[in-house]
Amino acid sequence: MAIDNDGGVCVSAEIAAGIPPAAALFHSLADETRLRIVARLARGEARVVDLTTELGLAQSTVSKHLACLRDCHLVGYRAEGRQSFYSLTRPELMDLLGAAEHLLAATGHTVTLRPVRDNAGMALTPRQAEA
Question: The HTH arsR-type domain covers which part of the protein (predicted)?
Answer without folding.
Answer: 15-108
